[in-house]
Design brief:
Blueprint: E1 2-3, H1 10-16, E2 20-22, E3 25-27, E4 33-36, E5 42-46, H2 54-68, H3 77-117, H4 123-148, H5 154-184, H6 190-222, H7 228-289
Antiparallel strand pairs: 1-5, 2-3, 4-5
């Protein structure tokens, strides 16, 4: 990391790294990860140069940037070293807050959307079912990254948001079919309705998922190392999103509906028992009056 004073646009820095002399060989580092963090002018650079020593590449990047932007990097050698060792926690904290905020707000928005869209058939339980499925998908992706010790950057955050959208789409397709079937026949058992709706949409769900996975696998095979995390997150997310819409979101809706039905039956029994008790209580008084 390095602080440019005055600040330099990220695109200008990227263009300057298009031709870098590394160990006597001219290579392009324009595909490196370059992004701003913290105060204006603070730039994080993660070079991508397979087959080259990292320290040699870092030294070549420093030399190139000092040649291209002498005014902005005048007298910054000590600061460069300090940023290089201390940038990690700051980037991690900012990234964590940004990622949590983006994912959290998107999930809240999706829950409200589903609750409103399916309000005619009990939108709240559909919204909760979708949110539990989305939380499951995101947590599984994060768990895989933790197991493999992979880095989480803004590309991975973008992939997580994509997973949230994909999983929501899969879930809404099933929920929409449930709503259609319930609208046609409200007397049918709700569990049977959900089971039939899942079976009717299963072919579409699997076809879409397999098609998307084929594209992601090609991305993983042919991508640079900077896109590996993005592809991994999408791969895991599409798989989890496919089965969560079937085995998590829908069963939660069924469980909630069964719980509501049980409560209604208990309330009806209590009312019936109360009515019978009241009738029995009034009989003796009538007989004695007669």
């Amino acid at each position: 990391g390095i602080a440019f004073n005055p600040p330099v646009p990220v695109q200008s820095i990227r263009n300057s790294l298009g031709n870098v002399n590394v160990g006597g060989t001219s290579i392009s580092l324009s595909q490196s990860e370059i992004k701003e963090f913290g105060d204006p002018g603070n730039i994080l650079i993660r070079s991508v140069a397979p087959g080259y020593d990292e320290q040699v590449v870092a030294a070549a990047v420093k030399t190139t940037l000092k040649e291209k932007f002498p005014e902005s990097l005048k007298g910054t050698e000590d600061q460069w070293r300090r940023q290089e060792f201390n940038v990690g926690p700051k980037i991690g904290t900012e990234l964590a807050y940004d990622a949590a905020g983006a994912i959290g707000w998107s999930i809240i928005g999706i829950m409200l959307y589903i609750a409103i869209r399916f309000r005619q058939v009990g939108g709240s339980r559909f919204g909760v079912g979708a949110i539990v499925a989305l939380a499951h998908d995101v947590l599984i992706v994060l768990a895989i990254f933790s197991i493999f010790g992979a880095d989480i950057d803004m590309g991975v955050v973008a992939a997580l948001l994509t997973v949230v959208g994909y999983s929501t789409n899969d879930t809404v397709v099933v929920f929409d079919r449930i709503r259609e079937v319930v609208g046609r026949n409200r007397q049918e058992n709700f569990s049977s309705v959900v089971d039939r709706s899942i079976n009717e949409t299963l072919n579409r769900t699997l076809t879409t998922s397999v098609t998307v996975l084929l594209v992601i696998v090609l991305l993983l095979i042919g991508s640079e190392s900077t896109n590996w995390g993005f592809g991994l997150a999408l791969t895991v997310g599409v798989i989890t999103g496919t089965y969560s819409s079937i085995f998590i979101a829908s069963p939660i809706v069924v469980w909630w509906q069964n719980w509501l039905n049980k409560k209604r039956e208990e309330a009806q029994r209590n009312r019936k028992n109360g009515t019978e008790t009241a009738r029995r209580a009034t009989r003796p008084s009538r007989e004695s009056a007669g």
